[in-house]
Design goal:
single chain; 421 residues; alpha/beta; Rossmann fold; Dihydrodipicolinate Reductase, domain 2; ten-stranded mixed sheet; binds nicotinamide-adenine-dinucleotide
């Protein structure tokens, strides 16, 4: 039986430097059209961690009568008062579904390895699904989820919220106008800091598998997944058919299973190179960015800030944009047929990257001589020697760390065998 929600403030998200949902930007948008439709009945699965961002967004939408949060599920119950009083509280999705009827939307913001079973359970109802990124932890599960959505006629939005940025339209326009000339390549650069506490925060952090179940919590598949997904979107690579080749070179400076410092090199089916050079072992965090390398200039998209900088012989310009909220977009899709911004099938290209990382050899450890630890105890974080310059060179030259001859880069590019389509 669900228990009514109590009355105290909720927990803070544990990973607040990830790009947040566009609640702040979307708050400024008119909600008038939607308020005419009955409030959508919504359930949230996973209320702590990133679930708190969804809770805040749902509170905003509930205040505008767009949604009614009728139920939440989490084995770790919400603090009293941290979810609206309208919401019944359940320990899991199965219990929630057994006692809650008429749901329009189920939002799943739980650990990666639970996405497939929870997503499939959600798709067996009449509700549409908002599934946090990365969609699932293997290509086989991605196919299964896609088949279930198609068979049940359900819509699935994947939580790559950077894809709601209005800067993407401006990028399309500048490419069509030839502002930066011919697009020759795209790179994604991510330099973040994650300390020991980050990897201690939950059992699945930094894991490739848990008890034989895929997790794939590496730098490119979780914390900096938006960098990869945004670069792919700008390149026009959406589905699995849009990728022609994929190589990975994975390293780790932390004492974890997964990679924390990697290069992913992709060629799209139209022949465009995309190189993602990513680390969680920088000396300080900077906002990640996607660079469009044109024959007459460059455009740099800081996707967490919706900020686009264009540099050509004519000079430099910078503009900040708004963002569409993916939950609102999914509701608009459900009621008015608006195209989904981040539909499941358009995560196909990203899922090939995840599959390449899942099946790649274990990440190579960066030798201690090339790692400096900043800070103490759980606040200490690894810094790979010269990582800032290494990322710039890898991204700019579409080269892996070993190809650049870096002293710590003892691995080699691993070619992923693309599945036959
Ligand atoms: N879009 C973004 O910017 C962004 C940012 C951070 C995290 N995420 C994604 O959000 C998801 C959750 O990440 P997190 O760091 O908050 O994870 P977490 O480990 O903190 O778990 C989130 C919540 O899910 C609950 N949970 C675990 N198993 C559950 C189950 N079977 N049923 C119901 N609830 C369950 C946990 O108790 C916890 O409250 C991941 O997919 C992550 O990649 C997205």
């Amino acid at each position: 039986m669900g228990t009514p929600a109590g009355t105290v403030a909720g927990a803070q998200p544990r990973d607040s430097s990830n790009p947040a949902p566009a609640a702040a930007q979307a708050a400024a948008q008119p909600l008038m059209e939607r308020t005419e439709a009955p409030a959508a009945r919504v359930a949230l699965v996973g209320v702590h961690g990133f679930g708190t961002h969804h809770l805040r967004n749902l509170e905003r939408l509930q205040a505008a009568s767009v949604v009614r949060l009728v139920a939440v599920a989490d084995p770790n119950p919400p603090a009293p008062g941290s979810v609206p009083a309208t919401a019944a509280v359940f320990p899991g999705l199965a219990e929630l579904l057994a006692e809650t009827s008429g749901l329009d939307l189920i939002i799943v913001a739980t650990p990666i390895q639970t996405h497939a079973p929870l997503g499939l359970a959600a798709l067996a109802t009449a509700a549409d699904l908002y599934l946090e990124k990365p969609p699932v932890a293997s290509l086989a599960d991605f196919t299964r989820l896609g088949e279930a959505a198609a068979a049940n006629g359900r819509s699935v939005q994947i939580g790559f919220q950077s894809l709601g940025s209005h800067a993407l339209k401006a990028i399309e326009k500048l490419l069509a106008d030839g502002t930066i000339g011919t697009l020759q390549g795209i790179s994604a650069t991510g330099r973040w800091v994650r300390d020991r506490a980050y990897y201690k925060r939950s059992r699945w952090a930094g894991k490739r598998t848990i008890d034989g179940v895929d997790v794939v919590d590496g730098v490119a598949t979780n914390p900096l997944a938006h960098a990869v997904a945004t670069a792919l979107r700008i390149a026009g690579a959406r589905t699995t058919a849009d990728i022609a080749s994929l190589e990975t070179e994975l390293y780790r400076a932390n004492s974890i299973e997964s990679d924390d410092t990697s290069v992913i090199r992709i060629r799209t089916s139209s022949g465009l190179p995309i190189t993602c050079a990513l680390t969680l072992c920088a000396s300080e965090s900077v906002e990640p960015y996607v660079t469009l390398q044109g024959s007459k200039g460059t455009a740099i998209f800081h996707y967490t800030e919706d900020r686009l900088t264009v540099e050509t012989a004519a000079g430099r310009s910078e503009e900040a944009f708004g963002r569409d909220d993916l939950t609102e977009n999914l509701l608009d899709h459900r009621t008015g047929g608006a195209p989904l911004i981040s539909p499941l099938l358009d995560s196909g290209a990203f899922m090939l990257v995840l599959e390449a990382i899942r099946t790649a050899p274990l990440p190579a450890p960066v030798a201690e001589a090339h790692v400096r630890w900043q800070g103490t105890e759980d606040a200490a974080h690894a810094v790979v020697a010269g990582i800032e310059e290494a990322l710039e060179r890898a991204a700019g030259q579409h080269a892996t760390f070993s190809e650049l001859g870096l002293p710590w880069a003892t691995s080699a590019p691993h070619v992923f065998n693309l599945p036959a389509s």
